[in-house]
Write a structure and sequence with these properties.
Layout lengths: L6 E6 L7 H16 L3 E6 L5 H12 L5 H8 L1 H16 L4 E3 L7 E4 L5 E5 L2 H8 L3 E5 L2 E3 L5 E3 L5 H11 L4 E6 L20 E3 H9 L7 H10 L3 E5 L7 E4 L19 E5 L2 E9 L5 H11 L7 E3 L8 E8 L3 H13 L5 E5 L2 E7 L9 H11 L6 E5 L2 E7 L3 H11 L9 H4 L3
Parallel strand pairs: 1-2, 1-9, 2-6, 3-6, 9-11, 10-12
Antiparallel strand pairs: 4-5, 7-8, 11-12, 13-18, 14-16, 14-17, 15-16, 18-20, 19-20
Helix pairs in contact: 1-4, 6-8, 7-8, 9-10, 11-12
This protein binds adenosine-5'-diphosphate, aspartic acid and magnesium ion.
Amino acid sequence: MPNTGQRIVMKFGGTSMAGIERIRHVADRVRREVATGNQVAVVVSAMAGETDRLVQLCKEAAPLYDPREYDVVVASGEQVTAGLLAMTLQGMGLNARSYMGWQLPIRASGHASALIEGIDVAVLERVFDDSGIAVIPGFQGVTSEGALATLGRGGSDTSAVALAIAAKADRCDIYTDVDGVYTTDPRIVPRARKLDVVTYEEMLELASVGAKVLQTRSVGLAMRYGMPLQVLSSFEDLPGTMIVGEDGSNLTTGTVMERNIITGIAHDRNEAFITLTGLPDRPGTVAAVFRPLADAGINVDMIVQSAKSAGGMSDLTFTVPKASLAHSVDALAKVREAGGFQELLTNTDIVKVSVVGVGMRSNAGIAALMFDTLAERQINIVAISTSEIKVSVLISEDYTELAVRVLHTAFGLDAPAASLDAGAAS
Ligand code: ADP
Ligand code: ASP
Ligand code: MG
């Protein structure tokens, strides 16, 4: 009998897969989806904390680890959960099997933050034809040399979306430990409000400045292919958040889209800043600093160059991902030897806090309100960056909670007190 239902990719995150009890719960959720007549493929993350543990082991083994070997180590967490979920589903009498990235294959290029080049769906189609359930480890692919590759932290979201696109799924459901996308991280601000719908563009910006509920790349991919994306709770049967196009396309919930100036506030503790002092005043100085970083594949985010002192020297401050700090310092050693700067200082006790909203395009005064609000609390701003729909500031990490909370209130995002118990995270 051909299946007439929908084709859905379900992705379960680390907290949802943390331990056999929770994996059983996930298996039951999958069973219910299959029982509605839908074709289902499942993408899983490693158990919560496992990838962190594996990354730490790499750092201890070799601070400047080889990215190819890093991938061999960190991809292992998802292999374990995929096997465990497949056997749990089999124990329920379901026709489930795990397929590692190389078995499909999910073709990828690069290491540590590899890009997906394509997914062959022949194997998957055969599984669907046999009314089977494929359980696929997220976060991993295979290079043209046959080596394991991982997709960057949080990459299982991207695996799921890429798989949904390749398999022409009707929807990609991201099951996690909160019941949707909120105006800010509900673990920091209990008065954060759940958004019924959010545009791809806003979600992209929120994710890129630290709202880790979805990996940025997964949102970009879904946007490019118009893949309907939904964020849902693994633990409770509650309506989640639909991610839709600006015109409301993919809007299946019938909800009217709100048009707030500000969609949300995000924070990112994963950046470190580097200050270089004594840069000589001549053309090419800054290029000489950033070229080796780019060649090492390191993403530089915020950049501030201080005014030149009397001696004609200037300072340069910029942020890099914390995970790339050791590699950045290493890449800059040669620049210093060549007289590119005098001193290199690093600081990891910082956080980037951002205010995001499409409505900002047509509203002046967002940045001013943000700076005023932080000034009132005596919070010092180290660096600033803006885009058309975002303002970000770099501040001391000690002020993370306070800054996010006061900005959430200042921009009128707080939920009414009465709905508090409905809004908090699990
Ligand atoms: P998973 O392991 O399921 O991939 P993540 O930890 O990657 O889960 O993402 C879910 C977490 O994202 C939540 O626990 C929450 O703390 C955090 N988060 C940050 N910003 C937001 C937001 N705006 N809305 C919802 N959750 C958010
Ligand atoms: N396990 C990987 C990580 O923690 C991928 C993911 O969970 O999305 O980054
Ligand atoms: Mg995640």
